Amino acid sequence: MCQAVVISRGFVYIGCPLFSGLEARQSVLLTHGDSVEEVGEELEVVGRSSSIVVAVQHKTKDVFGLQFHPEVELSTHGKSMLKNFLYLVRCCAVDSL
Fold first, then answer.
1. For tag attachment on the chain, is the N or C end more exposed, with fewer CB atoms within 10 Å?
2. Could you say which of 3.40.50.880, 3.30.1360.30, 1.10.3720.10, 3.40.50.1100 is the CATH number of the domain covering 4-95?
3. What is the pTM of this model?
C-alpha cells in the first residue's frame, strides 16, 4: 500500500500523509528507552528504525502514532510532519461539519 523511502536510521513510508512531500533521507530524534516491535491488526507500520517501530497509522482512520520527536530541531523535517498533521486535522474538521 505505501512506498518506502530510506532514512538515516530506518524507513519512512511516503504513502502515509504525515510524510507527504518529505525528502528521501532525513534524521529524527529517537530518545525513548521503550520501544514497539509489533502492532495490532488495525495499525500499519509506516516508519521503522532497524527492528523498532517508530511510526504507525490506523488502516482506515486518520489516526497516527510516533515514537520520535518531530517537534525538535534535530528532526530535520519535523515541522513538515507537524504541518501535514495539522492539514489533516483541519480537513477532517471541515469535512465533518
1. C
2. 3.40.50.880
3. 0.76
Alpha carbon of 14 to those of 18, 32, 50, 95, 97: distances in Å?
A: 8, 24, 18, 23, 29
Interatomic CA distance for residues 41 and 49, integer angstroms? 20
Return the top range by mean pLDDT from 4-8, 47-51, 59-63: 59-63
What is d(CA 57, CA 17) in angstroms, rounded to the nearest whole number? 9
Select from 96, 92, 8 the least CA-distant residue to 49: 8
Residue 66, amino acid:
L
Q: Where are the domains of the chain?
A: 4-95
